[in-house]
Amino acid sequence: NLCIFSHVASSSDDWEAVCSSHGEERIKNFDSELDRHMMQTITDVKYMIKKSKYTALSEVNFQRGCLDAHNELRQRYGIAPLVWSAELADMAHAWAVKLSDRGRMLYPELPGCSPIYFDPQLALLTLRLPDELTPLGLRIGENILITEANEHSHLPTGAEVVAGWEAEVEQFDFDRPRWNPKCQRFSQMIWKDTTELGAARAWNTAKNCVAVVCFYRPSGNSNAPGEFASNVPSRDCSMSPARSLAGQIKRSVTITAPADHKRDT
């Protein structure tokens, strides 16, 4: 189905229009939070041993690449860029370290509970209110990757991680958009209502394990009626931001998603 506008802007103009809908100030400063976070890391490495300094600076590059790759993907779908969250990044780092120590996949949530929160007083990840009692804007989504890596291995970059999750698009049913465990990482990355990202990578050299954790706020992949239709653009509109906008408007007007139950976790 061809999406038709009486006015169609260029890709760059369209991208700017999408961004402006989320507030010029937020977009203008979306890099500053990441820059502050990175500068704090660079300041901290002065007191680290040589190997730790290299690791910390490598992670700074990973975080920048991860945010850029997410936003390049979202731009192709005509969706506003994500803002870096130092809070989510610290949470992601804590969880990535735990996963690399364990050497296996663990998700920081339980059935019937909302996603994780970071308690600064206890300095740990904890579960809070049930979903029905947790404001939607405070719920946190996650994408996680566990892989092997020894001292001679190439550690996955932010761009490579995002590209791997993007490949799940082949499993997504654009004709009947809904949560699918085979492509949940892809749909989370392009979820329209998600505005913040925090990411971290941890490498446990003793166990040859690398863990990558991305946390998103508000969380995506909601199966509430109409959520996928309004938050994930159609397949036909993925070729350019302008077509993506047209698809989102058309779908929000003409499509009513089935009343699915929220996914089990």
From TrEMBL:
InterPro entries: CAP_dom, CAP_sf, CRISP-related, SCP_GAPR1-like. Residues 61-224 form the SCP domain. It comes from the Eukaryota. Pfam families: CAP. PANTHER family: CYSTEINE-RICH SECRETORY PROTEIN-RELATED. This is SCP-like protein. It comes from Ancylostoma caninum.
